[in-house]
Specification:
By secondary structure, the protein is an alpha+beta fold. About 20% of the residues lie in helices and about 30% in strands. The protein has one domain: RRM (RNA recognition motif) domain (Alpha-Beta Plaits, 2-Layer Sandwich), CATH 3.30.70.330. It contains 2 helices and 6 strands.
Amino acid sequence: MKKIFVGNLDFAATEESIRALFEPYGAVESAKLMTDRDTGRSRGFAFVEMADADAERAIAAVNGTNLGGRALNVNLARPKVDRAGSSEGGPRGRRPPRW
């Protein structure tokens, strides 16, 4: 199973439209459109999971495709990077205790 990153999506795209875009190349296990947690609006990218061989074929076929007036950026998703220092101290983390 491979996870595919789909970027530069039109903000009107839905999980159903993304699934329909990839289904001609094989079975789509999941299609997840990323949304803003405050507004619920699309963030312009999604992740699609497909079988290994189907994923490679879909990436080659869909990358650069024009959808909603935007050229899609499609490639294998990279593993999520753990952001060191984000949970304690520092300018972006919590404040350290005052005592």
